[in-house]
Every structure is written in structure tokens, then in C-alpha cells.
């Protein structure tokens, strides 16, 4: 019912609202520009096809085929040992290549239905595949709120010792 695909100009970026204006504006104004320059890659959850969109409508949601139901963005980054959980920090050199999960959001009226979990799983899979070709110790996120940090911790992300908003999920044993 839901498809995950790279963001393009065909998706309705203006109609997306996750309740956090900063993230809405980033998707509207910055995501495609950054993608064009290779700064970040954004992936969106959309209805799989017309029938899926109609099924959402029948369930009471205002959904069209080009609507964005959720999104996330990945970039390459370096972090320092103090940005990682202390147990992990010891394993690495002074500058640690990571895949940064820059943004993750789902449509306000669809939150709490598993979409965030689906997007996060997709982000982890993509980061894991990319790390087979380009070095990346793990997935790193700087959570925008305590609630967001709790969400990531449910899925195994560990906070840095003195900076609980910074969370890390190793991609390697
Ligand atoms: C955070 C966010 C992406 C979660 O998406 P979602 O679609 O609501 O998440 P899901 O429905 O997949 O929830 C998965 C699990 O996480 C839990 N969860 C969701 N939001 C949570 C939160 N803020 N704090 C703690 N747990 C949370 C759910 O209860 C669910 O657990 P369950 O399976 O035991 O019921 C979404 O709430 C959102 O877009 N928030 C606004 C933007 C934001 O803060 N993004 C994070 C930026 S760093």
C-alpha cells in the first residue's frame, strides 16, 4: 500500500505537514536543491498506486497519489568520539565516518500507525547497503526533541554519554 522512493519534483512537497514547521519548510525549500548537489538524499513514502490512495480516502484520509506521507534524508558526515556512546567511541579513530539521518518525519494525521518505523527501517537498510561501498561506521542522528530521541532509542540507537540528543546505531558487529 505504501511505496518508498527517492524524492522528485513530481511529489507534492507543499501539501506535507508533520507538525514541525522547520521540517516542513526543509522538505519544501531545501530537499530537492540539496539532492541536486549531492548534499543529501531524500526518500519519501507515497501511496503505492491509485488504488492505495483511494483506500486511504475510504479510511477517511485526504490522500492523492503524489502526496508525501513521510520522508527521511541521509547524508555523509564525520563525527568525533564524544558524539558517540562511550562504549562505541573507543573502537574508532578520531574522526569517524557515519551516515547521518538528517530528517525523519511522518504526516501529522498518520502518526502512530507504524509509518515512522517503516521509514526508519528503510533508512537503516539503505545505510547498510551504502556502507558496503563507502565506509560508514553507523547511522547517526541528532534528535530534535526528547520525544524524537525516545523514538530512536526504541530501535536500538544509543545516546552519546553527555549529549543525549546525539544517537548512534552501529552498522557493524
Ligand atoms: C517521530 C515520528 C517520525 C514518529 O513517526 P510515527 O509514524 O508516529 O511512528 P510509528 O507510528 O512508526 O511509531 C513506532 C513506535 O514508536 C513509538 N513512538 C512514536 N513517536 C514516538 C515518540 N515521539 N516518542 C516515543 N515513542 C514514539 C510508537 O508508539 C510506536 O511504538 P509501538 O510500536 O510500540 O506502538 C513522528 O512522530 C514525527 O514525524 N514527528 C514530528 C517530526 C519529528 O519530531 N521528527 C524527528 C526529527 S529528529
Give an overview in words.
There is one protein chain. The chain has helices at residues 21-37, 50-58, 86-89, 115-130, 146-153, and strands at 2-6, 41-47, 70-79, 96-106, 138-142, 158-159, 166-170. It is built from 5 helices and 7 strands. It is of the alpha+beta class. It has a 7-stranded mixed β-sheet with strand order 1-2-3-4-5-7-6, sandwiched between helices. The longest helix is centred in the N-terminal third of the chain and has 17 residues, at 21-37. The protein has one domain (2-170): Gcn5-related N-acetyltransferase (GNAT) (Aminopeptidase). The chain binds coenzyme A. Coenzyme A is lined by residues 18-20, 23, 104-106, 111-117, 143-145, 147-148, 150-151, 154. Coenzyme A (COA) binds at residues 18-20, 23, 104-106, 111-117, 143-145, 147-148, 150-151, 154.
**SSE sequence, one letter per element:** EHEHEHEHEHEE
Strand order of the largest sheet: 1-2-3-4-5-7-6
- Specify the CATH class: Alpha Beta
Q: On the 0-100 scale, what is the average pLDDT?
A: 96
Give the uncertain stretches in residue-range form: none
| Overall body shape | elongated
The domain count comes to 1
Topology at a glance:
Elements: E1 2-6, H1 21-37, E2 41-47, H2 50-58, E3 70-79, H3 86-89, E4 96-106, H4 115-130, E5 138-142, H5 146-153, E6 158-159, E7 166-170
Parallel strand pairs: 4-5
Antiparallel strand pairs: 1-2, 2-3, 3-4, 5-7, 6-7
The protein binds coenzyme A.
Amino acid at each position: 500500500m505504501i511505496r518508498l522512493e527517492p524524492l522528485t519534483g513530481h511529489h507534492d512537497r507543499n501539501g506535507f505537514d508533520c507538525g514541525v514547521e522547520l521540517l516542513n519548510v526543509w522538505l519544501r525549500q531545501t530537499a530537492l536543491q540539496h539532492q541536486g548537489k549531492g548534499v543529501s538524499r531524500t526518500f519519501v513514502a507515497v501511496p503505492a498506486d491509485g488504488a492505495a490512495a483511494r483506500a486511504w480516502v475510504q479510511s477517511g484520509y485526504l490522500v492523492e497519489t503524489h502526496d508525501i506521507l513521510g520522508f527521511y534524508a541521509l547524508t555523509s558526515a564525520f563525527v568525533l568520539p564524544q558524539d558517540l556512546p562511550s562504549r562505541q567511541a573507543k573502537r574508532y579513530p578520531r574522526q569517524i565516518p557515519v551516515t547521518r539521518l538528517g530528517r525523519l518525519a511522518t504526516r501529522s494525521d498518520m502518526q502512530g500507525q507504524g509509518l515512522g518505523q517503516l521509514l526508519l527501517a528503510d533508512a537503516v537498510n539503505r545505510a547498510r547497503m551504502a556502507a558496503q561501498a563507502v565506509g560508514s561506521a553507523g547511522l547517526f542522528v541528532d534528535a530534535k526533541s526528547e520525544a524524537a530521541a525516545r523514538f530512536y532509542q526504541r530501535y536500538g540507537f544509543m545516546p552519546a554519554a553527555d549529549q543525549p540528543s546525539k544517537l548512534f546505531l552501529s552498522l557493524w558487529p
